[in-house]
Amino acid sequence: MKKDKTRKKSSAYKKYRRHKILFITELIILIPLLVFGFLYVQFEKRLGNIDTVTLQSGDIQVNEEVETNAVLHGYTNIALFGVDSRDGSMDYTNTDTIIIASINNDTKVVKLVSIYRDTYLNIGEDRYGKANAAYANGGYKWAINMLNQNLDLDITDFVTVNMNALVEVVDALGGFDFDLTDEEVVHMNNYCVGTSEITGKSYERIEPEVAGTYHLNGVQAVSYTRIRYTAGNDYKRTERQRELIAKIVAKAKKADMKTLVDIMDNVFPMISTSLSKSDIVSLGMNMLSYQLGDTCGFPFEHRTSDLSGDSEVPVTLSWNVTRLHDYLFGIKDYEPSAGVQERSAHIEEVSGFSKGSAVSKENYTLNGEEAGKDVDDNIPGIQETESGTETQTQEAAVSDNGDGSVYDDNSYDNFYDQEQYNDYSPDGYNYDEEY
C-alpha cells in the first residue's frame, strides 16, 4: 500500500515537472515572439513617417549587358546617399556621402563601397563632372543612373538620409568610442560648430586637443566623419563614414525596444527612399541576420586633375570597374560593358591619364591583399604624361604616409597648402569651401 502511494506521488511529481518544463519552454518561445510582435507593430506604425517615392518605368537605366548578368541577380544593391541640407530638403542637393550597399542574398553579408565625392564620371545626359554633382543636378534618379551606367550595376532603389538623422541615431545609442589623432581632434572640434548649428544639438569641445580614445556624441561623431583635411583627404573621410556605420549596426543589433522605438520616432522623418513598405519591413526584421563584411572606397586607382575644379580621375574607369566587380561579386576578369568602355575612353582622352599613369594607394583590402599594397604589381607607378590637364612625376605626386594611406601633394584637398587655411577659425569652418 505504501509503495502504491509512493508510486502515485512519484507519478504526480513527474507530471508536475513535465507541465512546468512545458510552461517554461512556452514562455521561452512566447516572450521573443511577443517582443518581435511589439517591435513589428511599432515599426509598421511609424513607416508613414518615412518619405517614400515611387520610381516610374524608365526612371532607372541599367546597361544592357548588366541586365543579363546572372551573377548580379544573387545580390541586392542599394544606393545610400547622405545629404547636408540646411533647409531640410532631401533632393537636388550635393551628396556628402555616396555608398553602395551590396547584400549577398544567400550569405546575408553586406559590403559597403564609398564613391569618392570628387570622382570624375558621366553624371547624366552625357555631362561629365564630380560624382556628388549628379544628385544636385538631377536628384536621386541621376545619382542612381550615374552609378549604374559608370559602374555596370543594377541599382533600382535608394535611401537618402539627412545628416541630422545620424546625429539622432548616435545619441539614441549612447555614443561611440573612437581613436583620434591630435590632428583629427582639432578638425573635429572645428566641424562641431557648424554641425551643432545645423542640427540644434549640443556638444562639448575636447580640450586639450591631443590624440586619444574619446567617447563621441552625435554632433562629434558626425563631425569626425566629415573631416577631409588630414592625410588621406577624402579617402580617409569615407573610411571614417564606414567606421561609424559599422559601429551603429553593431550597437543597434543589441539595443533594447525603447531605444529602437526612439530611433524610429526621431529618424524616420529624415529618411527618403524608393523602397516599398514591404521591403523596409523585410530589411528591418532581418537586421539581425545581416553581417557587415568588407568595406572600401572607389575608385581604387585614380589621379588628381583640374577637370571640373579638381577631381579624382579613375585610372582607368574600365580597370576600376573590373576590380569593383571582383570585389563585390567575385567575378574574375570582368569585362566592362560597351557603355562603360566608351565612358572610360572619353575620360582617358580628356584627362590624358591612361592605365599605368597613376597608382594611388589607400586603405582597402581586395581579395586578401594587405591595405596599402598595389592590387596589381604589374602596374607601374606614376609616369609623366604628354597630354592632359596636368603633368606629374612620381616624386611630386604621391607620398606614402607609412600607414597605407596616400597624401596627394597636387590635390585641392591639401588643406595646409591652401590660402583658405587662414579663413578657418578655431571655432568653425568655411561651408563654401567644404561644399
List key phrases describing it.
2 domains; two-stranded antiparallel sheet; alpha+beta; disordered C terminus; globular; Aminopeptidase
Helix amount, in percent? 40-55%
Main sheet: which strands, in order across? 1-10-7-2-3-4-11
Number of strands: 15
Strand content: 15-25%
Overall geometric form: globular
Give the name of the CATH superfamily of the largest domain. Answer: LCP protein
Can you put this structure into words, describing what you see?
This protein has 13 helices and 15 strands. With 435 residues, the protein is an alpha+beta fold. It has 2 domains: 2-48; 53-296 and 408-435, Aminopeptidase, CATH 3.40.630.190. The radius of gyration is 25 Å and the shape is globular. The N and C termini lie far apart (93 Å).
Quick recap:
With 435 residues, the protein is α+β, with helices and mostly antiparallel strands. The protein has helices at 2-46, 64-67, 133-151, 163-172, 182-199, 218-226, 233-252, 257-267, 277-285, 317-329, 338-351, 394-397, 431-434, and strands at 51-52, 75-83, 95-104, 109-115, 120-124, 127-130, 157-162, 176-180, 212-216, 271-273, 291-298, 302-305, 311-314, 398-400, 406-408.
